[in-house]
Design goal:
The chain is built from 13 helices and 19 strands. It has 402 residues and is of the alpha/beta class. It has two domains: 177 residues, Flavin prenyltransferase-like (Rossmann fold), CATH 3.40.50; 209 residues, 3-Layer(aba) Sandwich (Rossmann fold), CATH 3.40.50.10300. The two termini are 29 Å apart. The mean pLDDT is 93. It binds flavin mononucleotide. Flavin mononucleotide (FMN) binds next to helix 4.
């Protein structure tokens, strides 16, 4: 829980200012204390009342307002002292230039200049593509980056001014996720982790295929939690697995393609851990027909062959620790422990697929963490919470050096 974390959101005069209402709600939902500061020009786009209502705190708009000194007699200093993280969104070309030059001519720019060295500072530029690509803005952003500011690149797409290009404010969920990462303590910083997610798809012919019920939600939660804790994460996901807004994701179709993707990544970039959350098909058609199989009068018998065992393939060429997942309907823990030993896994997460609610496609699950030393039962909880517990185990695994 983030009960005591405080974020100062600086809003400047860009058309995307209205989106910050949603951002404030995301922070409040996650129990953050939110303080909003607005420039004079930002108030031309949206009123402070909106943010006062959503944040539950007075909004700072003027450094020389003496009748109501809410955050202290020198608000720029007391604010800079009291917060855990600073987010400027949307950040105009103007505030970026002022921050780079060290200008302090209003409450927001003055507060930026007064921020503590160790306070994470996140800048979310949003502007017309020519303003963004102007060498002045590029240089200013480079200067801020060199000074330790975190710049969230704007998205490309249709801009409010009607042109196409880079300059859109990143999704509110992305800004929130980056803020969570920068204030997490980054217990997995420097660790490279590959996470697989979702179901593989095995083609029978150009129309039909064999797959399973995995949605990719569990893998996504594990990848995003490791990313939040500072790890460098790659998600290798089945074709239809849920997408991530923050973690780089490579898409694959069949089990063989997933194996190739994992081995290629291990070879090219290495990894400190592989988490095999994907539901990889055990069988694939003996032959994939290049033309659609015509419907006949009688039944159809398909001949299936075994798919490659990705964990065994990893173990053939690499010492990287692997965490596995198992979905079982009987003897859940017993089978999981067998798999743990047979495959040389560091840990296995065992799911009981007979449970009435939870499991495939659900946001909830009931599972067991099985290691050589112990079995830990996790009561029914959200996949996000399971991922939180698993990330804790991963931190311990690295601390123990295996
Ligand atoms: C309708 C309108 C939309 C604007 N949108 C943006 C924008 O998206 N990004 C930006 O950098 N400037 C934008 N500007 C220009 C800024 O408002 C202007 O540079 C202003 O001085 C910024 O002040 P501030 O940084 O103190 O808020 C816009 C101006 C107008 C009139």
């Amino acid at each position: 829980m983030n009960e005591k974390k405080s974020v100062l959101i600086g809003i400047t005069g860009g058309i995307a200012a209205y989106k910050i209402a949603t951002l404030v709600r995301l922070f409040k939902k996650a129990h953050w204390n939110v303080i909003v500061a607005m420039t004079k020009n930002a108030m031309e786009f949206i009123t402070p009342l909106t943010f006062e209502t959503l944040s539950g705190n007075p909004v700072i708009t003027d450094s020389f307002e003496r009748s109501l000194p809410v955050y202290g007699s020198m608000e720029h200093i007391s604010l800079a002292d009291s917060i855990d993280v600073f987010v400027c969104a949307p950040a105009t070309g103007n505030i970026i230039a002022k921050a780079a030059a060290g200008l302090a001519d209003d409450i927001l720019s003055t507060t930026i200049l007064a921020l503590k060295k160790e306070t994470p500072k996140i800048i979310c530029p949003a502007m017309n593509v020519r303003m963004y690509e102007n060498p002045a803005t590029r240089d200013n952003l480079e200067t801020l980056k060199k000074r330790g500011f975190i710049i969230i690149e704007p998205d490309a797409g249709e801009l409010a001014c009607g042109v196409e290009g880079k300059g859109r404010l990143p999704r509110e969920e992305v800004i929130f996720a980056v803020t969570e990462r920068e204030t997490s303590g980054k217990a997995l910083s420097g660790k490279k982790i590959i996470v697989t997610s979702g179901a593989t798809v095995e083609s029978i012919d150009p129309v039909r295929y064999i797959t399973n019920h995995s949605s990719g939600k569990m893998g996504l939660a594990v990848a995003e939690e490791c990313w939040r804790l500072g790890a460098d994460v790659l998600l290798i996901s089945g074709r239809d697995a849920v997408p991530s807004l923050t973690v780089p994701q490579e898409r694959v179709t069949g089990a063989s393609e997933m194996k190739e993707a994992v081995l290629r990544r291990l070879k090219e970039k290495g990894a400190d851990l592989v988490v095999m959350t994907a539901a990889v098909a055990d069988y694939t058609p003996e032959k994939t027909e290049s033309r659609k199989i015509k419907k006949g009068e009688g039944g159809l018998t398909l001949s299936l062959k075994r798919t490659p065992d990705i964990i065994s393939e990893i173990k053939k060429t690499s010492q990287v620790p692997v965490i596995g997942f198992a979905a079982e309907s009987d003897n859940v823990v017993e089978y999981a422990r067998e798999k743990l030993k047979k495959k040389g896994l560091s840990l296995i997460v065992a799911n009981d697929i007979t449970q009435k609610e939870g499991g495939f496609r659900s946001d909830f699950n009931h599972c067991y963490f099985v290691s050589m030393e112990e079995t830990r039962e996790l009561k029914r909880m959200s996949k996000r919470d399971i991922a939180g517990h698993l990330a804790g185990e991963i931190v311990l695994l690295f601390n123990r050096g295996r």
